[in-house]
Amino acid sequence: MKIVNARLRKKEGLFSLELTAGRIAAITAQPDSIACAPGELDAAGNLVTAPFVEPHIHLDATLTAGEPAWNMSGTLFEGIERWAERKALVTHEDIKTRAKKTIDMLVDHGIQHVRTHVDVTDPTLAALRAMVEVREETRHLIDLQIVAFPQEGIESFAGGRALMEEAVALGADVVGGIPHFENTREQGVSSIRFLMELAERTGCLVDVHCDETDDPHSRFVEVLAEEARVRGMGARVTASHTTAMGSYDNAYCSKLFRLLKMSGISFVSCPTESIHLQGRFDTFPKRRGVTRVAELDRAGMNVCLGQDSIVDPWYPLGNGNILRILEAGLHICHMLGYEDLQRALDLITDNSARALALGERYGLEVGRPANLLILSAPSDYEMIRSQGHALVSIRDGKVLMQRTPARIERRV
Ligand code: FE2
């Protein structure tokens, strides 16, 4: 397969890409626009990029909002109550059906790499077992990383440590955690030491729900970063949410940033979910409840954006479109400055791929997998401004998804 008249991010001019045997065989600069031959794909001067990445979602909970009852207040706490009711109805097939339906939604928006958190605070590990099957059955659509996520804690939940060990033995790729939810500060710290040791011993990656609260005293990210630094594991460790960082004072944050940078860990922010769920104890002024995305980025750290939920008890909206999260995130995080807009897609492509440690399995370079997108605009800025879409998604050198853009006819 050949794609012609492609624009590539951070490069001038037009390019042709040849895909052979599931790999990118050649990327050639074109002196000018060329006619598209039969069997070729014409990017028509629009961007060709590596696939979008979803670095943080909960596929075991998606598409459950309103079952059996809606979250009337919209708060995190009512979400937990509603989820407890829905969780009682969960079956192996129910999880697989909803996860696959959600994966289809992600694929339709150009996502080919997904990291899902799966609740393992369940003595039967039913959701994890179902998701391991889903990972195999959807390999032709996405690369799926499964996080063993202890929703109700590691130290505070009966048998929590053993369930984490078992989840890894059953095939989880990533070790999770939720230190701010543990009953005490000490349990939060020991949960991080435990999960880092488990990851180091088993070769798993790490992605911790960390400080997902407006409480400025929730300071577990410093513990996670220091554990990563001492063990030399930064490239394999991600801190998700870190919303408390939006409430830390600047004096503490300036000290913290030095450690975060030394540690080399990555950050995921879910701006739509966080702005919806956080700030709920405030009257006015009301905090945004989002981590310091722009500041982390400007300090040279790796930060990316995720959806977190699609139609679940915590967040009633979502359609799989990560570009919607990007647009909202740029607004929420004060990132509509000129420089930010020029490289906005980093937040849902290269930065996320780095957080997921995809390495040479990702990126538009000769020899890498022929996984790529043709977008509907010629630049990052125009993709955001025009609310663009992924028009074609190619995986393993074959067209996986093709979107026909809306056609508008003016009659006057
Ligand atoms: Fe999450």
Question: Would you mind describing this structure in some detail?
Answer:
With 412 residues, the chain is an alpha/beta fold. It folds into two domains: 89 residues, Urease, subunit C, domain 1, CATH 2.30.40.10; 308 residues, TIM Barrel (Alpha-Beta Barrel). 33% of the residues lie in helices and 21% in strands. It is built from 13 helices and 16 strands. Strands 1, 2, 3, 4, 5, 14, 15 and 16 form an eight-stranded mixed β-sheet that branches. Strands 6-7-8-9-10-11-12-13 form an eight-stranded parallel β-sheet. Helix 4 packs parallel to helix 5. It is globular, with a radius of gyration of 21 Å. The relative contact order is 0.15. The structure holds fe (ii) ion.
Please specify the SSE layout and strand pairing.
Blueprint lengths: L1 E7 L5 E7 L2 E8 L10 E2 L4 E3 L2 E6 L18 H12 L4 H16 L3 E9 L6 H12 L5 E7 L10 H11 L3 E2 L9 H18 L2 E6 L9 H12 L5 E5 L8 H14 L2 E4 L1 H7 L15 H6 L3 E4 L16 H11 L5 H5 L7 H6 L16 E4 L4 H6 L4 E6 L2 E5 L10
Helix pairs in contact: 2-3, 4-5, 5-6, 6-7
This protein binds fe (ii) ion.
List the ligand species: fe (ii) ion
Helical residues, percent: 25-40%
Poorly predicted parts: none
- What is the second-level CATH architecture of the largest domain? Alpha-Beta Barrel
- Strand count, sense and closure of the main sheet? 8 strands, mixed
Binned strand content? 15-25%
The CATH class of the largest domain: Alpha Beta
CATH structural fold name of the largest domain: TIM Barrel
- What overall geometry do the principal axes of the alpha carbons give? globular
What's the helix count?
Answer: 13
Instruction: Give the mean pLDDT.
Output: 97
The CATH superfamily of the largest domain turns out to be Metal-dependent hydrolases
Helix-strand pattern: EEEEEEHHEHEHEHEHEHEHHEHHHEHEE
Quaternary structure type:
single chain
Distance between the termini: 41 Å
